[in-house]
Amino acid sequence: MLAGDKMEQLQQRISIVQNRISSAAQKSGRNMQDISLVAVSKTVDIPIVAQVYNLGIQDFGENRVQEMTRKISSLPQARWHFIGRLQTNKVKDVVGRAFLIHSVDRWPLAQEIHKRGQSLGITVPILLQVNIAEEKSKTGLQVDEVGSFLASIGELSCLRIRGLMTIAPLSSEPEASRPIFRELAALNKTLTKKALTNVELKYLSMGMSQDYEVAVEEGANIVRIGSALFI
Length: 231
Ligand SMILES: *Cc1c(COP(=O)(O)O)cnc(C)c1O
Description:
By secondary structure, the chain is α/β, with parallel strands linked by helices. 42% of the residues lie in helices and 18% in strands.
């Protein structure tokens, strides 16, 4: 059990984040219920995750396979999102366990996820990570690659493309992320108009502790929040 003051602090932080999401949603004419808060638990251990789950948060994000696997076995009832760079040889530990893989960024990875889905006899929901900011250090498809990637994905019959994800450059100024999020939302809108096999772009995963309100204003329906909750 966690000490009472720690629990109270977590509850407070959750409420603050939820209230801010709610206000930002209203600004963009949407409802809090349409937006999923993924608590990025990579910096904390299982007792804290369990507490946050008990406080009503059901979605958690992890960026390392081993760490996610460990946490899933302690808290299988939560929905686990894989949000980090995924190595092809670790795909087998993620497919069938993760609720959603946010970070598919290259064809060989997509092929491997499909193969694993096929051998388990399941379809695998994924998001494509797009490097909108064109940061050299970041992974993700280039904007002009996404269309052809999606057009070919029908071949990989076990994949279900459910949307797009991006990470904005680190900044202390939330407004700096706005053009990035706006561009991802616009790309999503353009691609939604094409009827593509196994593609239904309903999720926009964008916004972290630094910029989630701006992301929600620009149309995010999944925000990935770590430090605002846990640090
Ligand atoms: C760590 C991480 C987050 C959460 O970042 P915070 O700034 O702590 O909110 C979100 N998305 C990805 C991909 C991450 O690796």
